[in-house]
Each structure stands twice: as C-alpha cells, then as structure tokens.
Write a structure and sequence with these properties.
11 helices; single chain; elongated; alpha+beta; about 10% strand; two-stranded parallel ribbon; Chorismate Mutase Domain, subunit A; Rossmann fold; four-stranded antiparallel beta sheet; 6 strands
Length: about 260
C-alpha cells in the first residue's frame, strides 16, 4: 500500500493489482481495501484470482503464481527488512556468495532501502486502511520464524538493530560477486587446463555460468566438474540428465538426447 502511494507521488503511471491466492476465507474481500485506496489516489485497480492448494513449498508456489499473473516490470514492495530476512534465510540454506548478496536492487524493487516501519508509518499518516495478512505470522513458514524469532534474538545478542548491518553486508558481497563474475567471464570453462590453473573462486564461477539453466548448479555439482577438469574423474552427472565429460584437455556438456556441446 505504501508502494502504491509512493508510485503515485513519483508521477508513475500506476495500476494496482491485487492477487488473491484463495488460501483463506474472505481473501477476495480484501480487494475492496485496495480499491478504496486506489480510488482515493485516482488510479485503476483490479483483482486476479490464482488457484493454489495448501501444502509443501506453499510460499514458493504462491510467489510463482503471482509472478505468472503480474505484468512484466511490475513493482514489488520489498523493504530493507525483507532483504535482511533473505540474507539470513540464504545463510540457513548454506548459500554461497551470490545467495548471501540477497536481492539485487533494481527498478522493480524501488523501496528496498526503506524499513518496513516506514511503510506502516506512511499508511498510518495518510489514514489508509491496510490488510494484515495472518499468514505472515504462521510459524510453518521459515521466513516468519526468521522475522519474529531469529532477528529479534540476534538484535538482542548484538545489542543493536541488525537489519542495516545485514543489508550492508549483502551490498558488499554483491559488489565482490560482480567483480568475480567479470574476472571469470574471460575464463573458458571447457578448457580443462585453464580451469585447473585458475584460482578456484574463478573456476567455480566459470563452471556455474556454463552450466546455469533455470537455476545455477549447486556447489557439489561444480566440485565434480572441477574434478573432471583436473583429470581425477572422466565424467560426472550435472543434473537434468546432463553430464560433463572430458576428452583430452576439453570438457563437453552432454545432453539427454545424446548430443553434446563444448560451450553449453
């Protein structure tokens, strides 16, 4: 809701889109709150229904469903608090440098530097009614436990507000990751000799770039490829039915169809 207000104030051409996941009684009625705010601001609003069933990976499935119905370039209201939570979630998953860099600031996340309390204060100051989504307190979801349990505990231990610290750390790691990507871009991941001679951080990134599909390969997969490059294995599985094999000093990516590609 704060994003809606700020987008209008910034002179953007605005349409508010309410996505109803249909996961709780009365969720469709919440659109009336969105419409009232949109009417007050003089912008159009519409509601889109997506069909989701409760169950495993609900947060990820709901996110994918929203992305599928929102137009390209839709703005989202992620805040600095969301960024800090993302960094901690990635740490719990054992993510590497890129994961710990959090969400990359871009035009689609225009309020990523704001605190969540700033958005609440803005809506309160303007007298805007907002929706309190009870799923944001459901302890089934790990993000909620990070938000309501882990971050407050870490603040207490550190005797400071850790959100700015985590946001700053993410930015530093993002800059370092970008530099490594730039350096790794000149490394040929199919050249086994060059890959083995390169600093391991660059070799890993070159392999990740080469094998990236819908998602980048995990650390174990990258390590297996480097074993092949070093001559300690002849071939390895890299997921999706694909494998990397070595002939002489060249690596090739073999696909399920039986074809292969030296460049991925």
């Amino acid at each position: 809701m704060a994003l809606l207000v700020l987008a209008v104030a910034a002179g953007c051409r605005v349409e508010a889109v309410h996505v109803d996941h249909g996961l709780r009684p009365g969720s469709a009625d919440e659109f009336q709150i969105v419409r009232a705010a949109a009417d007050a601001l003089g912008v159009p609003a519409r509601s889109v229904r997506v069909d989701l069933a409760d169950g495993p990976n609900l947060e990820a499935r709901a996110r994918d469903a929203r992305r599928a119905v929102l137009p390209d370039g839709a703005l989202t209201g992620h805040t600095a608090d969301d960024q800090a939570e993302t960094v901690l979630l990635q740490l719990l998953r054992g993510a590497g440098l890129d994961g710990l860099a959090g969400m990359r600031p871009d035009p689609c996340r225009p309020i990523l530097a704001l605190r969540r309390r700033d958005t609440r204060d803005l809506c309160a100051a303007l007298g805007l009614e907002v929706v309190d989504d009870p799923s944001n307190r459901d302890p089934r979801f790990r993000r909620n436990r990070v938000r309501h349990e882990l971050l407050p505990l870490l603040d207490d231990v550190a005797e400071r507000d850790l959100v700015p610290v985590l946001v700053r750390q993410a930015a530093l790691l993002r800059d370092e990751g970008d530099l490594l990507d730039e350096l790794a871009a000149v490394l040929d991941p199919t050249d086994a000799r060059a890959l083995t001679a390169a600093p391991v951080a660059l070799a890993r990134r070159a392999v990740r770039r080469w094998l990236a599909d819908a998602h980048p390969p995990d650390a174990d997969t990258v390590a297996r490829v480097l074993e092949v490059a070093a001559g300690r294995a002849r071939a390895c599985d890299v997921g999706g039915g694909r494998r990397v094999a070595r002939t002489g000093q060249r690596l090739r990516l073999e696909h399920p169809s039986g074809g292969s590609s030296p460049t991925g």
